[in-house]
Amino acid sequence: MKNVINFWNNPIEYFLKNTIKINLFEYYKKENLDEEPFILNRNIENKINKKVFKNVLKNINTKKIFKYYVSLGIFPKKNFGKIIFEEIIKNSKNLKNKIYKFYNNKKKKKIKIKIKNFIIYTNIETNSSKRLIKWKPKILSSYDKIKFWFNHLIFCIKNKCKNNSKIFGYKNSKIIFKKLSKKKSYNYILKYLIGYSNGIKNPIFLTKSGMMWIESFINTKNKKKSKKEFIKNWNGNNYIYGEKNNVYIKKIIKNINKKNIKKIYNSSLKWHYPILKNIKK
Predict the structure, then answer these.
(1) Distance separating alpha carbons of residues 276 and 45, to the nearest angstrom
(2) What is the pLDDT averaged over residues 64-93?
(3) Half-sphere exposure of 274 (CA within 13 A, CB side)
(4) If residue 133 lies in a helix (H) or strand (E), which one and from where to where?
């Protein structure tokens, strides 16, 4: 299932890496379209977040973590480093308050599901057979949206989905998927498995900027505004890394003409819309 999730996060990159066997290396100035810019490298930031959140959950002092990363030169030694670290602690405490009542019941389940000719093997961490509650010590991104969508579908196939599925993150970020019947969940996941099977042979013009286009239209019902959202995230600016600069996407979408814009829109409408329309606002 991990391969399917990684594919749907960026089908073009997955196709080039795994089908064409092209591996390109790029240093990103801004690492994710829907994550705000941060002074720390994303991987280091996630490691620090996990360590701090773990300590906060168990009421363990976090000073050693701060001193360790200061000694590595990750945090500035003066007040600015403390301000950044205190913000991480604040985010961790807020997240703890939201999920603590679910924490002690958390269990990991191994799951095997047969969907037509596909067999899915995966693990899902859950705290109840009635609802799916998850959390991540980070600001939730489009990748988390896609990953949690598949977790939600699998959970609804294996259990009677009596409640909405929820995932919580830093800075009040959250994703809530509406409860679905077993039949609907099965049909959705079959659609994405077939799409994965086809997409590893021929690239799908599916982009995060396209997802933002569809999401903006769902929220505003305004075609012009939502298209501007796509253009903004495609081109980028001082705060957002433009998706047009992604070295993998540039290999397939060489220019943004009307034909390619239509392909991006239609791909997002087909694949992103079912995800976005099932998010509870």
Answers:
(1) 27
(2) 88
(3) 17
(4) strand 133-135
How many other β-carbons are positioned within 10 Å of the β-carbon of residue 158? 17
pTM of the model: 0.89
Q: Which helix (H) or strand (E) holds 135?
A: strand 133-135
From 149, 135, 61, select the one nearest 97 (Cα to Cα). 135
What share of the chain in percent tops pLDDT 70?
Answer: 93
3-class DSSP state of 121: strand
User: What tens digit of pLDDT does each residue of 114-142 get?
Assistant: 999 999 988 887 766 678 999 999 999 99
Whether residue 33 contacts residue 240, with contact meaning beta carbons closer than 8 Å, is answered with yes
CA distance readout (Å), 3 to 7, 18, 138 = 6, 10, 22
Contacts of 98 (CB under 8 A, 6+ apart): 135, 168
pLDDT in tens, 209-264: 999 999 999 999 999 999 999 999 999 887 778 899 999 999 999 999 999 999 99
